[in-house]
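Give me the fold.
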Amino acid sequence: MSGTLGLPNSGVSADFVIRAREIHTLADGLDPQRSLAIRGDRIVELSPDSAGVDAWIGPDTRVIDAPDHTVLPTFDDTHTHLVYAAMGAFAVPVHQATDITGFLALIRAKAAETPTGEWIFTTTNWQELNLAERRMPTARELDQATDRHPVLVQRGGHNGVMNSYALRLVGITAETVAPPGGIIERTAEGEPSGRLIDAALHMVDHLLPAQPLGTRIAGLDKASHDYAATGIGAVRDCAVPLPDLEVFAKARDEERLGVRVRALVMAQGARSDKQLDELLDAVEPWRYRSDPWLRLWGFKFVLDGGLEGGATERPYVGHDDFCGLVLWAPDDLAHAVE
């Protein structure tokens, strides 16, 4: 392949030249290479010789000599939530905790520097099974970290725990009925435990302060480059609110995206034909965006609950009357997709 992909004699130089012990490709039958040249978003030449693409080196070319390293294609993460990661980029890093004591200590430290009454949020990429107690914290435990701030501890997109301050703001009490497709978890005494699942989690949405645009872009910058540092080069973000397409676009315009983004726009709130038509009209311009760094991939419909609410034909073990959460009637969902 050496000499077949570029025109080094034209005077056009590469942005990057990499020399390595081995450069692996996904091309069938192609042995590992030793050097490559990159211009823009394209590999313009590969060579089995470590000096085979040197003709592409110009005064502004960055040359990376890595004779002991191997170059691999990046991974494509086909289901992730970069939007959530970006929104939590500067939140309390509870994913670092190994037990609930440490979990609460991180929130307590954030509360100490946060004005009274302001919301405190955490990262969402944690899992209670990684805590020594193997469970979520309760509202009462979160109260020990702070009773002067509303706290929302969200895990993924389906679960959250709030402290008592936040529960009062939302108006959730022992008498509150969970919305369709949601669960308000309760203690043995019938009081809210603080945990909200699926549709119940969205009862708080109208109270949450919007992040400034600059903060959103900085979050995308940090989170996307964190992805890239692990070898991920493209992500399929499977829950992008429609307005966030513009946030992605602004981050892209500022060259602050560290990975290529394939966005699935959330269609969960579009229930009527009119709402679906409006959503389709809103994304129409995005269908023709040719930028390889940011593309519309499709829509996200959520049929049933998450890990704790997946719809099943038989009841859950230990819960004789619970078969999960159906968030769309199957016929309605089929009609919406059509």
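The CA atoms of residues 75 and 232 lie 5 Å apart.
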